[in-house]
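Much of our argument rests on the idea that a fold can be written as discrete symbols. Part of our work consisted of pairing the sequence of a single chain with a tokenised description of its backbone. We regard such an encoding as a compact summary of how the chain folds. The amino acid sequence and the backbone structure tokens for this protein are reproduced below.
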Amino acid sequence: MSIRKKLIFSYAAMIAVPILLFGLTIALLGNLLIKDALPGAGGGKAGHSFPLSSIRDLFTGRIELSSGLKFIAEHDPKLLSDQAFLTDTGAKLEEVDSGMIVIRHDEVTYASSGLPMDKILANLSDGRMKAEHPGPPSGNQWETIPFLSPDGSSGKLIIVSDMKPVADFFKRLVPLVLITLLGALIITNGLLTYLVSRSIIKPLYALREAAGHIREGDLDHPIQLRRQDEIGQLGAAFEEMRVRLQASLGAQLELEQDRKELLANISHDLKTPITAIQGCTDCLRDGIADTEEKRQKYVQMIAGKTTEMNRMIEELQLYSTLDTGKLPFHWDTVDLTAYMIQLVNELRLDPRFSGTEVTFTPGASTEQVLIRADRQKLHRALMNLADNSLQYMKGETKKLQFSLDEEPGGIYLLQIRDNGEGIPADALPRVFDRFFRAQSSRSPGKGNNGLGLAIVKQIIEAHGGTAAAASQPGEGTTILLRLPSWKQDRTKPENGGIQ
């Protein structure tokens, strides 16, 4: 439930609950008090579930009897001389806390019991035909009805009503009802205000505490308000912010760790060639290379170490550009089978691979394999794999085998196998991680800076593919590259995909 609906509900309850309690108070207290004020009102024929009904019936009975007596006094005054009629009518008037006085020839011929005769007759002697009482009714009030007897004499019929029980009832009921109504207002408003404010303030305290944790850099405390209102949405936004900050901080820490590892790797990798170059220059400067042959040997060593350093710096720059996504790709439709044939021929002519058996085996259904690729970037990835395999080959017969097969779903599997020393099982899951090098690759002269396979992975993933590795220590390594086929264009590229 939203906060707006809660407030509307609380406002409605602040009005409805006091009204309901007001009605219940009148019903309960009225039924209790009216038994004392009007005997017989709580049960029998006069009993009612709502107390004011008894008062209504009381006044209705008085009006009916008064109207009947007025009619008799006007049209049949002889009944006012009938003692049986007067006795029966007096009993009925007594049931409604009333009475009557009949005066004939200035004498009282009938009077109900318990009436203040002196007070009534004194008021009549002053000429007051009807008693009037401003404000709440209290005491007795009466009404004088003149009539003419059958013998021609005049008379008076005085109907007296006792208002004191009714007045006492209201004097006791009204203060209790007002006190109850005031108490209901205070309790209802206070309780609803407390509940509504608590439902709002408590989660705000939780959000304030969470903000304090975030301010102090503690991002391990989840924010779980379990609400569907506006505050719950705010809490969800806070939780999303916390998760993102935590992820961002984790990425920042990982980046910082990578930076430290990069500096350590650069220092480690550059130290060896720099030391070798420094040794060669010292030999040349100190005259140790006293023959032309020695001088050429040292110069060639300096050139080789410089080339190695330049390659490491180039790979670092390439990886950094790939990692930031700022390296442009120039896409073209490439026949992968023809492309691999050209690459294998290139490797066979490379002096570094002299003495290495380089082969390519296309699959039965890979006569023409069309992919979308950047020729230069793909060439760089495959050359990195070939160079990496060449570094770890052993034995007199060195083999580097390329094979291409088709997998279900339009995926082409390119495998690069070597018969090198293999990768330890604990290092295999991390071979494509940046700056990672297996322990066996840290031996001097390997020239591995831990970026070659990471660059391969980024280039292949940029082509929409995946890179994986399988290896058995001592038996060699297989790199598995999966690339999606290009279905939009089935025309064969120019030159068979060869640059």
